[in-house]
Specification:
Cytochrome Bc1 Complex, Chain C; 2 domains; 18 helices; 450 residues; single chain; two-stranded antiparallel sheet; two-stranded antiparallel ribbon; 67% helix
């Protein structure tokens, strides 16, 4: 150790680990472990991905066959592929939980704004991993799902056709598309992810974990090493047990749309389109939102307006640290907590509708779709009621305007049968009127008190 320390000065690192603490506040300590869980699943992705690459051969005649041989003849090949697929989905689940918990705890407040942005970039890169890896088996479902997914890019104003050709390597999904997705999945995205995650971890180690709102330092803390680190390792072991259980007993996924990776038939561009194509579950909300927009709206293309709305929503989420002025001053910000819950309910409703919950299998008739919207609305309203009750009873929250607006849109669309966009305008107008009235009343009361 002395030989190493004289050359690389590692003593300050050990001193840092010895004194580093994890803040303990009124919130649940479990939220602090989600970043490590996400990191664990990413490491599993890297290890299993390298093992799969030892047998996978990209090519029109080899991609499908190499996966078929891998899962049927290579010892434990099916298990490695199953672990790789399950860890990808579980990584996105843990990343979503980590992102929303960070938002609710206001851990993005100064000086951690760039930490939030780097985590947001990791989220986008993870979605890129999921989308690019879906085509690699070169089976029928992946081929037609990629065709539908890349078609959305055409709606981007001015650059749509160019972006489509960049993604596909031509006008149609072909073997050139497979080569580009393969390069992105195993080279470009991993390099970008490692670079951003390195920055993310560096910022976390430099600034530490965020203490509770209202304090600059936590009143007390847990030693990172060994107390927090050993708990982290124990949780990783539990995640590994869960991952292996899923991989062994559900090797091709649970069989629901967006979580099914059975190999099926080889891709055939001349075959009829695969029936009931659904994207991965984490893209379902965008898929459903695109369906809710008419072909033309205000003289513009409906998909273009939808993509513009999605870009605005994602942009708002990226700059939350600068929008939340109360958290910027280290104060509680109930409006942005409510905004986070409203976003969860918004995504929940669209995702359930994308799954066609309550509809007849394979049916697209208006009656079946309306029944699905009705059932999805009931589930979302029940979840929203639980959220409001728990927030009001357990956490003493009193700001429910945005959550109420999200639930109002769900009720107007799912229960009353009004178009989704009309329901959105009604709920947004109601929220605007209430917030404006509260602002004017507060301003009047301050003027009278002065």
């Amino acid at each position: 150790m002395g030989w190493i320390d004289r050359r690389y000065q590692v003593t300050p690192l050990f001193e840092f680990l010895r004194h580093k603490e994890v803040p303990i506040g009124s919130h649940w300590m479990g939220w602090y472990y989600l970043g490590g869980v996400t990191m664990f699943f990413f490491v599993v992705q890297i290890i299993t991905g390298v093992l799969l690459l030892m047998y996978y051969q990209p090519g029109e005649a080899t991609s499908y066959e190499s996966i078929r041989i891998l899962t049927t003849k290579v010892p434990f090949g099916w298990l490695i592929r199953s672990i790789h697929s399950w860890s990808a989905h579980l990584m996105i689940v843990s990343l979503l939980l980590h992102m929303f918990s960070t938002m609710m705890l206001k851990a993005y407040r100064p000086p951690r704004e760039i930490t939030w942005v780097s985590g947001y970039l990791l989220f986008l890169l993870t979605l890129g991993f999921g989308f690019s890896g879906y085509l690699l088996p070169w089976n029928k479902l992946a081929y037609f799902a990629t065709t539908v997914g890349t078609n959305i890019v055409k709606s981007v104003p001015l650059l749509g056709d160019w972006l489509l050709q960049v993604m596909r390597g031509g006008q149609d999904v072909s073997i050139n598309t497979l080569y580009r997705f393969f390069a992105g999945h195993v080279v470009i995205l991993p390099l970008a992810f490692v670079g951003v995650i390195g920055l993310h971890l560096l910022l976390i180690q430099r600034q530490g974990m965020a203490p509770p709102v209202g304090t600059t330092t936590a009143p007390r803390g847990m030693k990172f090493f060994p107390s927090f680190a050993l708990r982290d390792l124990l949780l990783w072991l539990a995640c590994l047990m869960l991952l292996i259980t899923f991989a062994v007993f559900l090797p091709y996924g649970p069989g629901i749309p967006g979580m099914d990776w059975e190999l099926g038939d080889k891709a055939d561009p001349f075959a009829p389109a695969y029936p009931g194509i659904k994207p991965e579950w984490y893209f379902l909300w965008e898929y459903q939102l695109l369906k809710e927009f008419p072909p033309h709206l205000f003289g513009l293309e409906g998909p273009q307006i939808c993509l513009f709305v999605i870009a605005i929503l994602l942009g708002i989420w990226a700059i939350i640290p600068w929008l939340d002025r109360r958290a910027y001053r280290n104060l509680n910000s109930p409006a942005f907590t409510d905004f986070g819950w409203a976003a969860i309910l918004f995504l929940t409703y669209l995702t359930l509708m994308g799954w066609d919950i309550g509809a007849k299998s394979g049916s697209d008739d208006p009656t079946s779709l309306q029944k699905s919207a009705h059932v999805c609305a009931l589930w979302t309203l029940a979840a929203g009621a639980v959220v409001i009750i728990v927030r009001g009873w357990r956490f003493k929250h009193r700001w429910f305007i945005l959550t109420g607006a999200a639930l109002l849109q769900v009720a107007v669309h799912g229960l009353l049968g009004l178009p989704y966009l009309v329901a959105g305008v009604i709920s947004a107008g109601a929220a605007f009127v209430i917030i404006t009235a509260m602002f004017l009343l507060g301003r009047a009361s301050r003027s009278s008190a002065g």
